[in-house]
Specification:
- By secondary structure, the chain is mainly alpha-helical.
- The chain has a domain of about 60 residues: Orthogonal Bundle (Helicase, Ruva Protein, domain 3).
- Helix content is about 65%, strand content about 0%.
- The N and C termini lie far apart (about 80 Å).
Amino acid sequence: MMEQNPHSHDGSEPHEHSHNEAEISAQKEQILKQILTSEARSRLNNIKMVKPELSNLVEQYLIGMATQGKIRGQLTDDQLKQILLSIQQPKHVILR
């Protein structure tokens, strides 16, 4: 009777996929730590518990800004509040 190797690869790659997600998530956290003060990070974590979609939008926006070099230093809690307000407000077209 042959013993199966618990580490053998069966063709499916769920572990590989979750590893990549964890890596991306870790990179995202690292960027957010660099660009947000602890108060702002705390606020974003609280939002993540209540409105994960909004939190994801804000994270993507912030990471995009950071990778384009548009964020200098760290964003404060007040600056994050302004970003949250602008993202949550419906877009109004102003005709002149």
